[in-house]
TrEMBL record, chain B:
Top-rank taxon, per record: Eukaryota
InterPro entries the record matches: F-box-like_dom_sf, F-box_AtFBL13-like, F-box_dom, FBD, FBL13/AtMIF1-like, LRR_dom_sf, LRR_FXL15/At3g58940/PEG3-like
SMART domains: FBD (SM00579), FBOX (SM00256)
Record's protein name: F-box/RNI-like/FBD-like domains-containing protein
Domain F-box residues, every copy: 3-39
């Protein structure tokens, strides 16, 4: 039984053939399919090939059916491995998941970044993400005082 | 600016990321840089514990936050009274406010300041188009004053929640939740209101997972429970208090976790042959769940079934491919009788309890001679947990399975004492002397 395929085109001109059922996990793509404008392939101006490859990998894994019966426990383990990426890739994935409207991927990527912030001091967070502190010491102190409780 | 990619995300996505954090972590980001100073304020989430605030001014913080975001929607409100505070009845008011702002996730854990005093949730939790998950712990809920309407609610967790006197409260709530998938009900031991909710009926066309805990605390027979859920896939039944138990339409049931004595202590007093009513209850319960594929069963449940099986045979669990059971020393024979009801079992996990407080009325069987069907044709993997090598029961079991399982591929032994690390070779040597009916069987030892 052959399944319907559609073509996704990355911003840097690469084409990827994907099963329609897998691709429509993206609400954005699902709407385009409904509106029937996919004949020549779907151009994804905001997603470069390196990221689109990861997105397709995710969607394939999450397309659970008889051919791919996978338990929630196994999916969670897979998620961990999948998200073992460079920071810049993770942020690109957030942008892609947002643009393509793939809720579960968006949740996963945001949660991954949130976990990198959780429990850290501001200094540690700045260091993790290379954020420059443009407060003067007095300004920073004033901001801390606003919510003293969080910094104790 | 040398900032890594995170700064290239627009504000809207940064606030999204912050919404996955407890509020205390979100607030900390206010000092990261000027760009971050006010991002946390725009996060439509409050996720706090009272213990986050050393001087207990959580109330003014929450008030200020809600006031600042007066015009926006709230996605999640989570508040835990995890520490003693002067109870000031603020929780209900905050719930009213957040529900009015289109909340999707509401999670409130109250504090019992003294017996018979609880904070009760407002009526508007019964009418909310946006609520997707509701978790309430150690609070009270009132009788609904109107028809319950929670059209988006998928997850409901009620733990140690008090009710007033409406005997139909649970039915009213559930019938107002047409898409409810996941329900956890941990019933309180409410000594102030012992006769509340005597008849619990859980009837739902959408429910896929249900966990019920009702721990035995009163010697009586007036509690009963009925579960009617044709889409139910997972049932965790830990109700020890209900005397009448009816389970029906379990056509989708795939997994059951059962830990209950069916109130046999007092409702059936040792299950005398004359107690037909209890026998019928247990028979109907087992028949209703007989399509399960995966079962976890506790020791005391097995003991009740053992007593019961002397009156009427246990129905066959034809689809059961995976069984996890806890047994004690005197229960090995009982286990084999139960296994006879599982003719297609492939996977067996046993936990061995050495503590044995039940006095066996039967003479100790020296050898386990009986071999159930599944060992001859389907059982491929056996795992024995909390095993102490050198201890008689464990060894008996290991010998038994190796000797009698025709198609066994794996025997996994999880050892209790980690001190035997260097005795692995001794164990292996000894094991290799045991008779193995399945030549290709692999024995794996895990500490």
């Amino acid at each position: 039984m052959s399944s319907k395929m559609i073509v996704l085109m990355s911003s840097d001109g690469q084409s990827f053939e994907v099963e329609e059922a897998v691709a429509i996990q993206s609400q954005t793509i699902a709407h385009m399919v409904e509106d029937d404008c996919v004949a020549d392939g779907i151009p994804l101006a905001n997603v470069e090939s390196k990221i689109l490859v990861k997105v397709i990998e995710y969607c394939k894994k999450y397309h659970v059916d008889e051919a791919n019966p996978i338990s929630e426990e196994d999916l969670n383990k897979w998620d961990e491995k999948f998200m073992d990426l460079e920071q810049s890739t993770i942020f690109e994935l957030i942008l892609a998941a947002n643009y393509l409207n793939i809720k579960s991927l968006f949740d996963l990527t945001c949660q991954t970044v949130a976990d990198m912030i959780k429990g850290k001091t501001p200094e540690e967070i700045r260091s993790t993400f290379n954020i420059e502190n443009d407060f003067t010491p007095e300004e920073e102190e004033a901001v801390r005082k606003e919510n003293q409780w969080a910094f104790e | 600016m040398n900032c890594d990619r995170i700064c290239e995300l627009p504000d809207s996505l940064l606030t999204q990321v912050l919404s996955y954090l407890p509020t205390i972590d979100s607030v900390k980001t206010s000092v990261l840089s000027k760009r971050w100073e006010f991002l946390w304020l725009r996060v439509p989430v409050l996720d706090l514990k009272v213990s986050d605030f050393p001087d207990e001014n959580y109330a003014s913080f929450i008030d200020n936050f809600l006031e600042f975001n007066r015009k926006s929607r709230m996605r999640k409100f989570k508040l835990k009274y995890d520490e003693y505070t002067y109870d000031d009845d603020r929780l209900a008011g905050w719930v009213v406010t957040t529900v009015d702002r289109g909340i999707q996730h509401l999670d409130a854990k109250g504090f019992e300041t003294n017996m018979c005093v609880r904070e009760f949730m407002p009526q508007n939790i019964y009418k909310c188009n946006t609520l997707v998950s509701l978790m309430l712990v150690t609070v009270g809920i009132e009788n609904p004053e109107f028809v319950v309407s929670l059209p988006s609610l998928k997850i409901m967790h009620l733990e140690d929640v008090w009710y007033y006197d409406d005997p139909l409260i649970m039915e009213k709530i559930i019938s107002g939740c047409p898409v409810l998938e996941d329900f956890v009900l941990i019933r309180p031991i409410d000594f102030c209101n012992l006769d509340v909710l005597q008849f619990l009926r859980v009837r739902s066309l959408s429910l896929r997972s249900f966990r019920l805990t009702f721990e035995y605390s009163v010697s009586c027979t007036y509690f009963s429970v009925e579960i009617d859920a044709p889409r139910l896939e997972y049932l965790n039944f830990n109700d020890d208090q209900s005397d009448t138990i009816v389970v029906k339409n379990m056509t989708s049931l795939s997994m059951i976790d059962i830990d209950s004595e069916f109130n046999v202590k007092f409702g059936g007093s040792r299950l005398e042959p004359g107690d037909l009513r209890k026998r019928d209850i247990i028979r109907d319960f087992l028949t209703a769940i007989s399509c399960v594929r995966h079962m976890i069963i506790s020791r005391r449940t097995l003991e009740v079934l053992d007593r019961y099986s002397k009156l009427v045979p246990i129905p066959k669990f034809d689809n059961l491919y995976r069984l996890q059971a806890a047994v004690s020393r005197s229960m090995l024979q009982l286990l084999l009788v139960f296994l006879e009801s599982c003719p297609n079992l492939e996977n067996l996990i046993l936990r061995v309890h050495l503590q044995d407080f039940t006095v066996s009325t039967e003479p100790e069987q020296d050898g386990l001679t009986y071999v159930p069907q599944c060992l001859l044709s389907s059982l491929e993997c056996v795992e024995i947990r909390e095993l102490i090598m050198g201890e008689e029961t464990g060894e008996k079991l290991v010998r038994y399975f190796l000797k009698n399982s025709v198609v066994l591929k794996k025997l996994i032994l999880r050892l209790e004492d980690s001190s035997i690390a260097n005795q692995d070779s001794d164990i292996f040597k000894e094991l290799s002397t045991f008779t193995k009916r399945s030549r290709s069987c692999e024995v794996i030892i895990i500490h």
